[in-house]
């Protein structure tokens, strides 16, 4: 299982703690250190669309100018932003070995999909 996120993100910490408490092994990919490829973003978008991947509730989004925010109108513009500012990606992104991806942390969803 692959987990994508930022180590110091509270939501990622909750997710990793849950995985460890449930003895689920994973490989962690740190956006800050390793970035994210456009191919990876496209693969995720095929499953969720681009909108759920852009975290419009986070600090990074709120720090963008109104012009930068309004420029995110489709997958191409979202990918440009997510590639340049990986902190704007909803975290964590879990590539579920059973299929699909999971965005964010929801204990009930993790229990249903990962156990």
From TrEMBL:
Name of the protein: Transcriptional regulator, Spx/MgsR family
InterPro entries, alphabetized: Arsenate_reductase-like (IPR006660), Thioredoxin-like_sf (IPR036249), Tscrpt_reg_Spx/MgsR (IPR006504)
Source organism of the structure: Parapedobacter koreensis
Stated family: Belongs to the ArsC family.
């Amino acid at each position: 299982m692959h987990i994508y996120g930022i180590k110091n993100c509270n939501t990622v910490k909750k997710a990793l703690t849950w995985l460890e408490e449930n003895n689920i092994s994973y490989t962690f990919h740190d956006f800050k250190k390793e970035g994210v490829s456009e191919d990876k973003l496209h693969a995720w978008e095929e499953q969720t669309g681009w909108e759920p991947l852009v975290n419009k509730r986070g600090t990074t989004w709120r720090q963008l100018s109104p012009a930068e925010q309004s420029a995110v109108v489709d997958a191409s513009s979202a990918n440009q932003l997510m590639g340049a500012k990986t902190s704007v990606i909803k975290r964590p992104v879990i590539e579920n070995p059973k299929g699909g991806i999971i965005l964010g942390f929801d204990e009930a969803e993790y229990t249903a999909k990962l156990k």
